[in-house]
Design goal:
The chain has strands at residues 4-6, 13-15, 18-20, 27-30, 33-45, 50-58, 64-70, 75-81, 85-90, 97-104. It has a four-stranded antiparallel sheet, with no helix packed on it. It has a four-stranded antiparallel sheet with strand order 4-5-6-9, with no helix packed on it. The chain starts with a strand and ends with a strand. It has no helices and ten strands. It has one domain. By secondary structure, the chain is an all-beta fold.
């Protein structure tokens, strides 16, 4: 299965719920059609864990995953999804989310 990397955030820092350094939302497309549309991407922290948040929807059969790279070198992934979802991908406690991105097979 081929996975396309879509969009992604540069490292962001969240302090007390305020986001600093978020990049614009990601979009994926194939020639002539848009199969995956992602919005509201950000890196955040809920006080105990750092996370990557994204909302994605599909307009044709597409499977997608949300990913986050953490400060301890781990990469956590959630999915697969094939419809609209609001997703949070968490890093282990005591680590920081460094970058988030979406991959798809479309």
């Amino acid at each position: 299965m081929r996975r396309n990397t879509v969009g992604g955030l540069a490292a962001g820092v969240a302090l007390a719920g305020a986001l600093i350094g978020a990049a614009p939302a990601a979009q994926a497309s194939t020639p002539g059609t848009m199969s995956l549309n992602c919005v509201n991407e950000y890196i955040g922290d809920n006080g105990s864990q750092s996370f990557y948040h994204v909302q994605c929807g599909v307009t044709e059969p597409t499977t997608w995953w949300a990913n986050v790279a953490c400060s301890n070198g781990s990469v956590n992934t959630t999915g697969p999804y094939n419809s609209f979802r609001e997703v949070y991908v968490y890093c282990p406690a005591g680590t920081q989310a460094q970058r988030g991105w979406v991959t798809s097979n479309g």
